[in-house]
Amino acid sequence: MSKPNLKVAIGSLKLQNPVMVASGTFGYGREYADYVDPARLGAIVTKTITKNRREGNRPPRICETTGGMLNAIGLQNEGLEDFIQEKLPACRDAGTKLIVSVGGETSNEYGEVIEALNAYPEVAAYELNISCPNIEYKDKIISQDEELTHKVVRDVRQKTDRTLIVKLSPNVSDITRIARAVQDGGADAVSLVNTFLGMAVDVETRRPVLGNITGGLSGPAIKPMALRMVWQVYNKISLPIVGMGGIMNARDAVEFLIAGATAVAVGTANFVDPRTPLEVVEGIASYLSQHHYKDVKELIGSLNVS
Q1: Of the given ranges (130-144, 231-245, 259-273), which has the lowest mean pLDDT?
Q2: Model pLDDT for residues 16-31, shown as the tens digit of each residue
Q3: Of 118, 194, 266, 281, which residue has the fewest beta carbons closer than 10 angstroms?
Q4: CATH 3.40.50.300, applies to 8-298
Q5: Is the confidence at residue 3, as pLDDT, over 60?
Q6: DSSP result, 174-238
Q7: How far apart (Å, rounded) are the C-alpha atoms in residues 23 and 93?
């Protein structure tokens, strides 16, 4: 039997397989080069880039918790110009599609970053990070507001014809309403979910463990909730979905595909074992062969609820 076809498309972005690495968990690709051949991945999603340098939140910024980890990095990065001058040249040699995660506080900031990056053909797509739980825009994050989400997506859509993926927050009452706002704004895909807002307390000092008090919970603890949200959104919009949240192995990834994800992103697992994304690629191919699927697209959205 021939090998199953793993190719998928997200908008105009063609991927050799449906496995990418989640923003903020893989640096800019070169940090993991000694452990993982990025050319074997569907795509790399960079750490979030903002127009200006951000110092991030005060430490401690990361702590382990039951079934996962909390982080409150605060989108620390050196800014757009540093990315173009220092990070992007190394990304050119990754051998796979490069998706740049873009952050900002206004539509204009997102737009300015994207307009600048449009000059670089190696940037294959953008992921709009409008859902970081450690950054507040006035009194809420962008993806907690339907109208604000629609405005940002609509404005940014006018700045580029490259694939535009919008990353959504799970910290909402109905994620499908936000997903519809993204679709109406003209995006090509949604990625979900970002981290769940949580906290940890040091019982000896009676102080928060994180310097920011709260942080984003990721890892296997959130997988059932993330999976449910992917399934809900799949049944409400027509855009492709990049599913993420607690994917630690190939079976986890297959669950997301069955629930409706076109592609998946491996995040926290990269900190546990950097080889996980490649094992997920191989595991998906093995699953397809074992179950006599010729194409991964046969699996997408195949959940049987009857």
Answers
A1: 130-144
A2: 999 999 999 998 888 8
A3: 118
A4: no
A5: yes
A6: -HHHHHHHHHHHT-SEEEE--PEEEE-EETTTTEESSTTSEEEEESGGGHHHHHHHHHHHHTT--
A7: 18
Known catalytic residues are: 132
What pLDDT, on a 0 to 100 scale, did the predictor assign at position 90? Answer: 83
218 is in an annotated binding site: no
Q: Is 192 annotated as a binding residue?
A: no
Which token pair is 218?
A: 């990721």
User: What tokens were used for 144?
Assistant: 């907690």
Instruction: Flag whether 249 is marked binding.
Output: no
Dist. CA 172–CA 4, nearest whole Å: 37
Average pLDDT over the chain reads 95
pTM for the predicted model, two decimal places: 0.96
pLDDT at residue 214 greater than cutoff 70: yes
Task: State yes or no: 94 annotated in a binding site.
Answer: no
Helices (H), the chain: 80-82, 88-91, 107-117, 146-157, 175-185, 223-234, 250-259, 269-272, 276-290
Strands 214-218 and 68-71: antiparallel
Closest CA to 77 of 58, 54, 99: 54
Average pLDDT value for residue range 202-210: 98
pLDDT per position as a tens digit, 152-171: 999 999 999 999 999 999 99
Residue 145 sits at the vertex; the CA angle it makes with 49 and 264, to the nearest 5 degrees, is 55
- The structural domains of the chain, with segments of one domain joined by +, span 8-298
Residue whose C-alpha is closest to residue 211's, from 56, 55, 59, 54? 59
Which residue, 131, 116, 119, is CA-closest to 190?
131
Cβ atoms of 200 and 66 within 8 Å: the answer is no
Is 74 annotated in a binding site? The answer is yes
